[in-house]
Amino acid sequence: MVKNNVEIDIKVMCIEAGTTQAKLAHEISTTPAYVNRVIRQKETVVNKTFTSMVEALGYDIQLTYVKRTENGQDGDQR
């Protein structure tokens, strides 16, 4: 199971970045509807087969987000 609430995570990141899901969609050359669908279906964010393998081994998945700094270095971790 993916432990993160990807939908909330993306919404918080959008707020922190001062952007919207629609602007994010434009930035990555896709539609707002597709961005919304992806974040609502967190099991598809991580490959379903990979998720099944990890679960079969007795693990859950927890995503960690690391903010990039202006110079491309890793910054704050979530």
Fold and architecture overview:
It is built from four helices and two strands; from the N terminus they run ααααββ. The protein is mainly α and 78 residues long. It has one domain (6-77). Strands 1-2 form a two-stranded antiparallel ribbon. The radius of gyration is 14 Å and the shape is globular. The model has no long low-confidence stretch (mean pLDDT 82).
Radius of gyration: 14 Å
| Tally of alpha and pi helices | 4
**Strand and helix order:** HHHHEE
Q: In the residues, how many domains can be counted?
A: 1
Within the largest sheet, what's the order of strands?
1-2
Query: What kind of sheet is the major sheet?
Result: 2 strands, antiparallel
Which features would summarize this protein structure in a list?
78 residues, mainly alpha, two-stranded antiparallel sheet, globular
Layout of SSEs?
Layout: H1 6-17, H2 21-27, H3 32-40, H4 48-56, E1 66-68, E2 74-77
Antiparallel strand pairs: 1-2
Question: Could you write a compact summary of the structure shown?
Answer:
With 78 residues, this protein is mostly helical. It has helices spanning 6-17, 21-27, 32-40, 48-56; strands spanning 66-68, 74-77.
